[in-house]
UniProtKB/TrEMBL annotation:
This is Diguanylate cyclase (GGDEF) domain-containing protein. Keywords: Coiled coil. Residues 373-631 form the EAL domain. GO terms for molecular function: cyclic-guanylate-specific phosphodiesterase activity. InterPro entries: Cyclic-di-GMP_PDE-like, EAL_dom, EAL_sf, GGDEF_dom, Nucleotide_cyclase, Rev_trsase/Diguanyl_cyclase. Gene3D superfamilies: 3.30.70.270, EAL domain. It holds the Pfam family EAL. NCBIfam families: GGDEF.
Length: 646
């Protein structure tokens, strides 16, 4: 409860008590948190604010900070804490406005009018007030809404308007009693205040450089002129590791570093005639007007980066400094200020992601690819819910007799707008977005259910082969998920083959070998895919719980008589097949597209083949015919394999 004195009965009196509340204490009601104030002098306060007389501690603390800031340049009557109570009320009003999407401009103008009415009309005091509110109001009151900074800027503009309006009204009330010289003085003061407030709202409070609002305005002005043959460049420079540095050394040293960088870059801008702005804490933007080519902007970026010394010495600390830049250069005809800035910032993101490049130019093709990647990433969860991810099945053929002993399940996605999206595009996106586990489980379930249907068509149905991503292998729960899927679908474990790429297996991921052992214990087949593209050796493969390997398609060049690689691959392929058989591993050759490849691989003793020559991927509905046609040639159950010792 707010307190302003004791009544005769000994209870504390508050402004909520009509017996003691002074109607001149508070202004009109404003939406937002109700804040208590003590009984104030009617000369500096308006009508009472409705609500419980409780002062928010953060509001009270900020009001004291505000009063101290004003007191540095302007005499403020502090008797009885009345000025502080006014500032508490105004702080609460501003807090309510910046957190309310439907805030009203008149309420913000009323704050400016009340500032004027409290005799806080000195230009320096007003400028300090605006700076303080813009820099500290949101963090001090714990306001984290990402839209609050933009809303605060618009609110402060209305505060400025309210102050000027009150100033104008006072001048009008003075009427003919004020002589011409006094009226001129008021006008000059108004213009000075407007200029100061405009500068405060359009420049960075720390470095004094133009802020984003001024930058966009400058770009628009440059683009609005005659466009024939004119060009424009934008360079966005960002300091590297600034956030970590500020976290370890504190914001004060971070401010000092930014001031030093701003001084260096300002010198370059003045010398070259470039417009320089400061935004997003550690980003600086150059506008290069009259450029003739991208190289002109790249040179400015290089100069700016070289302007930064290797290190700044601040308070006995040697602080290393480096940066990266993104640039865009464009004709002014048809260009848009915000779009140019967006492109430069996109290029900056590319530069930050590249280890060996300091400057990245905007690339429309790369931008379109990034936009498409972002769009596809956003669409994938919805596509999964709609069942857009399906499987096609490509035959795995036993080469000695042509029997279809299995089918590889190949993921497919037909996007409603972009059409078929290849797996090498959407699988990495699923990994990046964390969707791979749920999507992989969906596809595994589809494949197992399809294989169960094949079991009803033939005494020795084909197995189904499913690819696993390394992100799935890194999950200790994978064996349990596979076992549960087999139980739900009724598929025998030896009818499921899981393919792991060589690179995923050779990289030293913790727990992968243990996961493979657990999968082998279930009775499923494990095959190493793309063998020969990584750094594995057959000797090492003998220690892993796998049942076979799939040779990379590149090995087939060795059996093409017209290929220069004939000598090396022709000698290597029989050796690989023989060594794999010595380790009790099946050999599958993929990418078989020619008839002579089938004959040669069969002669070399290769067990299984896969490729367009042997069968193209089929939708689920067309696999039944293939299973039925092949059942008489299938013979022994190929996939019934005793688990290899580990």
């Amino acid at each position: 409860m707010g307190r302003s004195g004791n009544d005769p009965n000994g209870r504390r009196a508050t402004v909520a008590d009509p017996a003691v509340a002074d109607p001149a204490v508070a202004g009109p009601a404003v939406p937002g948190p109700a804040v208590a104030v003590a009984v104030a002098d009617p000369a500096i306060a308006g009508p009472a604010v409705p609500g419980p007389a409780v002062v928010d501690p953060a509001v009270a603390a900020f009001a004291r900070e505000w009063l101290d800031e004003i007191g540095r340049v302007h005499y403020v009557v502090r008797r009885g804490g009345r000025a502080r109570m006014v500032l508490e009320r105004l702080t609460a009003t501003l807090s309510a406005l910046v957190t309310d999407e439907s805030w009203q401009a008149p309420a913000a103008r009323a704050v400016g009018a009340e500032l004027f009415a409290t005799n806080i009309s000195d230009p320096d005091a007003l400028s300090r007030s605006i700076d303080l509110l813009r820099e500290r109001l949101l963090p001090r009151l714990g306001i984290t809404d990402p839209r609050a900074p933009d809303r605060l800027a618009r609110v402060l503009a209305q505060v400025n308007a309210g102050f000027i309006e009150a100033l104008r009204e006072q001048a009008q009330r003075a009427g003919e009693d004020i002589n011409r010289a006094e009226r001129e003085a008021w006008r000059e003061k108004q213009q000075r205040l407007q200029a100061q407030l405009h500068h405060a709202l359009s420049h960075d409070p720390l470095t004094g450089l133009p802020n984003r609002e001024s930058l966009v305005q400058r770009l628009r002005e440059a683009l609005d002129g005659p466009s024939t043959g004119r060009r424009l460049g934008v360079c966005v420079l960002k300091l590297e590791r600034f956030e970590q540095l500020e976290h370890s050394l504190g914001s004060r040293k971070g401010d000092q570093l930014l001031l030093a960088v701003a001084r260096a870059l300002r010198g370059l801008a003045v010398a070259g005639g470039y417009f320089l702005a400061h935004l997003n804490r550690d980003e600086f933007v150059f506008v290069v007007e009259g450029s003739t080519a991208e190289d002109d902007v790249a040179k400015v970026a290089d100069l700016a980066l070289r302007t930064l010394p290797d290190a700044y010495r601040i308070d006995h600390h040697e602080i290393p400094v480096s940066g990266k830049a993104g640039i865009v250069e464009h004709g002014t005809a048809g260009a848009d200020a915000n779009e140019l800035l967006r492109r430069a910032r996109m290029a900056l993101g590319w530069a930050m992601a590249e280890r060996h490049s300091q400057v990245a130019p905007f690339d429309p093709a790369r931008s379109a690819e990034d936009v498409l990647r972002h769009e596809l990433s956003g669409d994938m969860p919805r596509a999964r819910r709609r069942g857009e991810f399906t499987l096609a099945y490509q035959p795995l053929v036993r080469l000695r007799d042509g029997a279809v002993i299995g089918m590889e399940a190949l993921a497919r996605w037909t996007h409603p707008v972009h059409g078929p999206v290849p797996p090498n595009r959407f699988i990495p996106l699923a990994v990046d977005t964390g969707l791979i586990m749920s999507l992989g489980q969906d596809l595994l379930e589809q494949a197992c259910r399809q294989a169960t249907r094949w079991s009803r068509l033939a005494p020795h149905p084909p197995m189904v082969s499913v690819n696993l991503a390394v992100a799935q292998l890194q999950q200790p729960s994978l064996p349990a998920l596979v076992e549960a899927t087999l139980d739900r679908t009724g598929l025998r474990p030896d009818r499921l083959q899981l393919e792991i790429t060589e690179d995923d297996l050779i990289r030293p991921h913790d727990g992968i070998v243990e996961t493979l052992c657990a999968l082998a214990d279930l009775g499923v087949r494990l095959v190493l895919d793309d063998c020969g593209t990584g750094h594995s050796s057959l000797a090492m493969l003998g220690t892993l719980p796998i049942h076979g390997v799939k040779l990379a398609a590149g090995f087939l060049t060795g059996i093409d008589p017209e290929t220069p690689a004939l000598r090396s691959n022709a000698r290597m392929l029989p050796t690989l097949i023989r060594m794999a058989h010595d380790l009790n591993l099946d050999i599958t050759a993929e990418g078989i597209d020619e008839p002579h490849q089938v004959d040669r691989l069969a002669a070399l003793g290769c067990d299984i083949g896969q490729g367009y020559q042997l069968g193209r991927p089929l939708p689920p509905g067309e696999t039944a015919r293939l299973v039925a046609e092949s059942r008489d040639r299938r013979g022994a159950d190929h996939s019934t394999v005793v688990p290899r010792p580990r």
